[in-house]
Amino acid sequence: MKYSRILLKLSGESLQGEQKYGLSTAVLQSYAEQIKAAVATGVQIGIVIGGGNIFRGLQGAKKGFDRVKGDQMGMLATIINSLALQSALEDNGVKAKVLTSIRMEPIGEYYSKAKAIEYLEAGYVVIIGGGTSNPYFSTDTASALRGIEIEAEVMFKGTRVDGVYTADPEKDPTATKFDKITFDEVYNRNLKVMDMTAFTLCKENGLDIIVFDMDTEGNLAKVLNGETIGTLVCKD
Question: Are 211 and 233 in contact (CB under 8 A)?
Answer without folding.
Answer: yes
